[in-house]
Specification:
About 6% of the residues have low confidence. 50% of the residues lie in helices and 6% in strands. A two-stranded antiparallel sheet has the order 1-2. It is mainly α.
């Protein structure tokens, strides 16, 4: 008698793509998503973009990396007037939206400056003269 071995049943698996796109390619995909008109709401969040990239391109982009890509898109002007609020990114359409966003940026700049001063003062108080606020110049001995 021949012994029959039971084959393990395998669930159909999704095709895994062993493709790691470069940043320029991902940037183009992100730009396409940010420009898409198929959204019902004004903003698009980082998790929504991540889900889109995962679903349509089968890639995983971490939040910090995606924010860095969007930062570069904003600096380059590839999507003009791309601003953000607590709900996500969107293109400003009115001068009021732009003014409010610029005022928000100015407040954040002041808040970051206040934190910098506080930490600097604390460092001088706790560490004392060991702490330097300016970079040391390298001294060359002759």
């Amino acid at each position: 008698m021949k012994s029959r071995q039971k084959k393990a049943s395998r669930k159909p698996q999704k095709k895994v793509i062993n493709y790691s796109p470069n940043t320029a390619t991902v940037t183009e995909w992100v730009i396409r998503k940010l420009k898409s008109k198929s959204r019902f709401k004004k903003e698009i969040s980082v998790p929504e973009i991540q889900n889109h990239l995962r679903k349509h391109y089968r890639i995983v982009v971490h939040g910090a990396t995606l924010r860095s890509i969007i930062h570069k898109i904003r600096l380059s002007g590839r999507i003009p007037l791309l601003i953000a609020n607590g709900n996500g990114y969107y293109r400003a359409k009115t001068t009021l939206e732009i003014t409010e966003y610029l005022n928000s940026l100015q407040r954040r700049i002041r808040q970051i400056g206040a934190i910098k001063k506080a930490i600097d003062l604390q460092a001088h108080t706790i560490i004392g003269k060991q702490y330097k606020t300016k970079a040391r110049k390298s001294s060359k001995k002759k």
